[in-house]
Amino acid sequence: MTLRFLGTTSDGGDCPTLYEVEETGDIVVQGDKLTDPEHLAQLRDVKGSETFVVIPRELLTRFAPKE
Prior knowledge:
Layout: E1 3-8, E2 17-21, E3 27-30, E4 32-33, H1 37-40, E5 53-54, H2 57-63
Antiparallel strand pairs: 1-2, 2-3, 4-5
């Protein structure tokens, strides 16, 4: 799997960041893990292999692929 850097709104070189899986076009999101129990309780159909991250809306509007 090859990841292509799409963009970040971080000033310090850490998260949040978006990447594209070149072979599939899927998007990989890097961000701070969602840990608030109240928020986690509102999520649906969560598989044990899944995790959730919080990213700023600006990151998606600036760098998410449009197609």
